[in-house]
Design a protein that fits this description.
homodimer, 247 residues, alpha+beta, Arc Repressor Mutant, subunit A, 6-stranded antiparallel beta sheet, two-stranded antiparallel sheet, DNA-binding, GntR family transcriptional regulator (chains A, B), DNA-binding (chains A, B)
DNA sequence: GAGTGGTCTAGACCACCTA
DNA sequence: AGGTGGTCTAGACCACTCC
């Protein structure tokens, strides 16, 4: 079938190939919750009919979304919206690996949790105004009972209404963001530095003041690439390392 | 029959999709130097004829190699072998960015350079025998005249014959590997830690002993995914950070 | 104008899953 | 057996580059 809608908008300034437009439309259905995590999408054929494009074009859009971990495709079963609890999504954003042995997910203990005003750094990272309303959470994370990381999470208040009333904050906050506010974390940028442990952090981590810590500043983004979380982790890397693959 | 645990689908005997076989054959031509960096490849149509597959299958192989930065495709011009001197490739493996301002490439000063026996750690990383012959190079790298990192590079001697006779080692060693030994660095794994500066490193970097440094251990791999370089960088991250994007 | 890669379509067959 | 995604082919048209 030939799409009866405008097919060659070459006169447009912002030209996008058809498969990219299809992708945008499908992403929008993820954003607005039409398709929730875990749900199956219609088949390629069905989507092609709905959108008035060929199956190949739908496939190109789906493949690109799968490459970005938004979808999971299983031959013979169908295409599904990726869930934040799946281990491969979990470790997508968790790059800390023990020097010996296999990676495991740390426990969390919240030590403070409430509303605050955005500092300049927070405002810049989150794309909001300095002094704007944010939620701020501080947690200590442990492996095998051993504190290894203290982290400060900052969230723009307007994207997370009612966050302050939560009585409990689960270990996997990305699943919480998804279930409670329909916000899917799709990508993140991280910046790493080596710093000396402050007195406060040293006390929390049970290490010496001045001990070298790995500082990880993460800006996490949603499906539409808007920043939604700032996370500032200070980590004892004596028996751990941060692992990246460069291609 | 008895469906044991989930097995990966491509666990089968030797089955590979046609486009993956085509990719393998094309990669081999890069490895053996048939197509050198900067050279144009035959057109898709020509390759399809040569390999007796359809243009679409050739395209899928070329697209995958382009995604892995082995090739560069330019509409209307052709497909070219990626060159290690292009800034795109340069920054592919260099993730250190100043906190303010734009990234630039540091100068290098070699402070030692010669043959050695592989330590256990080096042997494990490079997949050679402990005590095997290696080249070892130590360099200090500076930005705007300011030393910011000291690095130790270890190379397996058999992959780099004659390395010891070099009188000068250029700043961009990946270009050297390519031009002199036909070895293309295609990917790398990096591990980061925060450590305290040793007395030796502190002297070289002009910082205090015990100052927190970012330790970056890189294993660089060739087109066939074999480890060919181990690099151990200790970096002053006071005004710099290591930048990663997670998708 | 000729040649290249980029997009889009259409249809075939295969491997896999569920029922 | 019927539906799904995965692969492969063939051909059309477009946008870009070079001559």
């Amino acid at each position: 079938m030939t799409p009866d809608t405008d097919k060659s908008p070459a006169d447009e300034i912002g030209f996008k190939p058809l498969y990219a437009q299809v992708r945008d439309r499908l992403v929008r259905r993820l954003v607005d919750g039409t398709w929730a995590p875990g749900m199956p999408l219609p088949s390629e054929m069905e989507l092609a009919r709905q959108l008035n494009v060929s199956q190949g074009t739908v496939r190109k859009a789906l493949d690109s979304m799968t490459a970005d971990n938004m979808l999971i495709r299983r031959q013979g079963r169908g295409t599904f919206v990726a869930e934040p609890e799946e281990s491969r999504i979990l470790f997508q954003f968790y790059r800390l690996v023990p020097d010996v042995g296999i990676a495991s997910f740390p426990d969390s203990r919240v030590i403070s949790h409430g509303s605050a005003r955005a500092t300049k750094a927070e405002a810049t990272a989150l794309g909001i105004e300095e002094g704007g309303d944010v939620w701020r959470i501080e947690r200590i994370r442990s492996l095998a009972g051993q504190p290894m990381l203290v982290e400060t999470i900052t969230l723009p208040a307007d994207r997370f209404p009612g966050f302050g009333e939560l009585t409990e904050i689960p270990n996997n906050v990305y699943r919480l963001y998804s279930e409670r506010w329909g916000i899917t974390i799709a990508s993140a940028g991280e910046r790493l530095k080596a710093i000396a442990a402050s007195g406060r952090d040293a006390r929390k981590l049970g290490c010496e003041k001045g001990e070298p810590l790995l500082l990880i500043s993460r800006v996490a983004r949603d499906l539409e690439d808007r920043p939604v979380e700032l996370r500032w982790s200070r980590c004892i890397s004596r028996d751990l390392h941060y692992s990246v693959n460069l291609r």
